[in-house]
């Protein structure tokens, strides 16, 4: 069995630290949309060498939070209301179809998965998560799992695959606007109403609630873009 060398482990741990610092700085607004990111400058400020900084750039570029400019740097991904609307409108359309399929033909167990996912979502909602990348990641994963659980009864591999792809590409808008919504009881209640509709097999209400949930990200992204002008 191959072993991980100590040096490789050290670089990985420094890379993890760089990812955490970058993500927290972006989501807190310390690093603004469109701002140039230079690994040497950030690395010196944070006490991290350029190799793990560049690896962190690559990892966050995959999430859409930053965009690579060239071999030497990157910039924080700019907010695009048009792109956000395109992504979330398409998500609403596809998820609406998947939600109706779940209600109509979902196999035994899919509603229990949704209940379990909601419990995990509630457990991972913390007021200080916007200043803690690890907690924010845990919440985002729980949030993602909740929405995937709601469509798990659709039993369509390709429909689920495309929705997951859209989720992955919308993370910068989802997390960027989440900070402005806050870790509130209202946010949790919003998801509880969706769960209740799923448990009641009320497809029309579930789709309506999901549409409204996704529309809030579009609205907030537009507000943030207007403020930054």
Automatic annotation (TrEMBL):
InterPro entries: GntR_C, TF_FadR/GntR_C, Tscrpt_reg_HTH_GntR, WH-like_DNA-bd_sf, WH_DNA-bd_sf. SUPFAM superfamilies: GntR ligand-binding domain-like, Winged helix' DNA-binding domain. It comes from the Bacteria. Residues 12-79 form the HTH gntR-type domain. Keywords: DNA-binding, Transcription, Transcription regulation. Coiled coil: none annotated. One of its GO terms (molecular function) is DNA binding. CDD domains: WHTH_GntR. PANTHER family: HTH-TYPE TRANSCRIPTIONAL REPRESSOR GLAR (PTHR43537:SF20), TRANSCRIPTIONAL REGULATOR, GNTR FAMILY (PTHR43537). This is DNA-binding transcriptional regulator, GntR family. It comes from Sinosporangium album. The lineage of its organism: Bacteria, Bacillati, Actinomycetota, Actinomycetes, Streptosporangiales.
């Amino acid at each position: 069995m191959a072993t991980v060398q100590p040096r490789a482990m050290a670089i990985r741990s420094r890379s993890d630290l760089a990812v955490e610092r970058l993500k927290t700085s972006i989501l807190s607004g310390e690093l603004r949309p469109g701002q140039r990111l230079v690994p040497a400058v950030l690395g010196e400020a944070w006490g991290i060498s350029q190799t793990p900084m560049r690896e962190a750039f690559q990892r966050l570029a995959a999430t859409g939070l930053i965009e690579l400019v060239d071999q030497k740097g990157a910039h924080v991904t700019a907010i695009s209301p048009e792109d956000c609307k395109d992504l979330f409108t398409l998500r609403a359309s596809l998820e609406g179809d998947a939600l109706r399929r779940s209600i109509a033909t979902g196999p035994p167990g899919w509603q229990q998965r949704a209940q379990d996912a909601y419990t995990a979502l509630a457990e991972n909602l913390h007021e200080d998560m916007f200043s803690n990348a690890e907690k924010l990641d845990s919440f985002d994963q729980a949030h993602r799992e909740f929405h995937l659980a709601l469509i798990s009864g659709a039993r369509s591999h390709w429909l689920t695959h495309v929705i997951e792809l859209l989720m992955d590409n919308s993370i910068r808008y989802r997390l960027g606007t989440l900070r402005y919504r806050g870790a509130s009881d209202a946010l949790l209640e919003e998801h509880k109403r969706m769960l209740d509709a799923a448990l009641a097999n009320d497809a029309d209400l579930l789709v309506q609630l999901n549409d409204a949930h996704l529309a809030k990200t579009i609205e907030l992204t537009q507000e943030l873009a207007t403020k930054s002008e």
